[in-house]
Amino acid sequence: MDGYSQEHTYKHPWERVTSASWRKFADPENKRTLSHILEVDTLSHKLEPSSGKLYTTRAITIHAPGPWFVRKIIGQDMCHCVESTVVDAQSRSMQLATRNISLQKFIEVEEKIRYDPHPDNPNGWTICRQETSIRIKPLSALASMAEKIEQRCVEKFQHNSVKGREVMERICKYLEAESRGISV
């Protein structure tokens, strides 16, 4: 198994960053940057009146992770994932958990992202914590090959993570300008 953890500070308030997170896949301007994302559909959303928490489940279709030769071996170029999100506006926390539901006999990927107000500037900045784990399954007998493939997958996920942060920053700047009444 391989994976990574990373933190990123957005110099934007929590409300703006979480709004950007919801818009990240919907904005047509981001299609080229996030070209690995093929489709996103909301399956359910529920606002719990007693706690004020919003629960959302989305289906996400992506290009299958990993090197091209692995996709060739498994005979599939797409992977279906489920993203579960919990937003607690009272405590100002947004948590996302995404895992693949297809290709599970070949690969397991789980990504967790959490957005919280930054402790050094809770009203102006947001800290994003991301953890991703990747496990190649059928190659466990060929450990060295599995490790290399897992590492390539990690590199690809990290690269896509950078692109995702770029999109989030662009949307945050757009939302900031919009709140000031400036056309972008």
UniProtKB/TrEMBL annotation:
InterPro entries: PRELI/MSF1_dom, Slowmo/Ups
Pfam (any one): PRELI
Coiled coil: none
Domain spans labelled PRELI/MSF1: 1-180
Origin superkingdom: Eukaryota
TM annotation in the entry: none
Protein name: PRELI/MSF1 domain-containing protein
